[in-house]
Structures are given as C-alpha cells and as structure tokens.
Amino acid sequence: MSSKVTALDLESGENLGDKTQAYFDLCEEKLGLVPNVLKAYAFDEVKLRAFTDMYNDLMLGESGLSKLEREMIAVAVSSVNHCFYCLTAHGAAVRELSGDPALGELMVMNYRVADLDERRRAMLDFSVKLTERPAEILESDRQALRDAGFSDRDIWDIASVAAFFNMSNRVAAATDMRPNDEYHSRAR
C-alpha cells in the first residue's frame, strides 16, 4: 500500500466516521496536512485510534523528555531501521523543534556525529542499542542513563518511544508507506 492508495476514499472523506473526520480536520488545521500514516490506518478506525492514542501519549504527553528529545529518539531508531517515512517526517520535526536544519540532517544520517550533550547522547545510545540488540540491555545501560540525569520514569519513556518507532518502522516498510511531500521542505 503506498501513501496514495488506501482502503478508503480519503480524499473525499467518504467512509470516515465523525470522530475520525474531526481528527483529520484538526490535523489539517494544526499541521497543514493529514499525515499519510493516519490515512494508512484509516481503513480500521479501532486501529487508527489505538495508534493515535499511543502516539499522542508517547510524543505529546507528560514526560521528563522534551518534545525534541522524543523526536530525536524517533529519528535515531528510524535511521537504524532505514525507515523513509519516519526519517522524513520526524527529521522535519527535529529541524523545526531545534531550529537547526543541520542537526536534523545529522540525526537522519548518524546521530553520533551531531554535537550532542552527554544526556542526549546517552539517551540515543540506549535507544539504538534497544533497537539493534535488545537482549543485550543490562542494568549498566540503565545506570548510564541515570548517571546522565534520567529518572527511572524517563528510562521507561525512552524505551517506550524507541519501541513504538521500531513497530511503526516495520509497519511502514511492510506497507510501502510514504511520507507527505510537505515534510521534505519543512524547516530547511
């Protein structure tokens, strides 16, 4: 399934429930677009709601992690997984939130070459290890996060964001999900 083809006629809004249409209208108002990932999930409103509820909780809810840090995790994980959709969409978010287009591009290519403080480097190192070698996560990895200033709740949030994007990257790859064209030019 590409971003242009879905199970529903989303261009006209036909077959969308009232709540979904209202949510898409809100996206259009706030973002200037309806992200293609939402359109892809719209074939099943229960699945769409589950996806958006989890996304909104992890990325917008209360956390010791800033919105930028959560987006940085999304990009670091998506870089490992070579997820075109998430690298494009969340790379744009890093550019926008940081005000630094170069940081956004460095994050997409290799966060290790970006000028990051110890806290963010530890967060991303943990997220990438959790992505590449989850069975090798040890107490020393969690302690490294604590030493960098993260609480146990923050560690939960880091792990949850990383895990969510690992799942999302795999769904995007499996369905040939493509990012909205608008993401390519944002905050450049």
From TrEMBL:
UniProt key word Oxidoreductase: yes
Pfam families per the UniProt record, alphabetical: CMD
UniProt keyword terms in alphabetical order: Oxidoreductase, Peroxidase
Coiled coil: none
Superkingdom in the source lineage: Bacteria
GO molecular function list: peroxiredoxin activity
Domain Carboxymuconolactone decarboxylase-like: 49-96
Record PANTHER family: CARBOXYMUCONOLACTONE DECARBOXYLASE-LIKE DOMAIN-CONTAINING PROTEIN, SI:CH211-175M2.5
Name the UniProt record assigns to this protein: Peroxidase-related enzyme
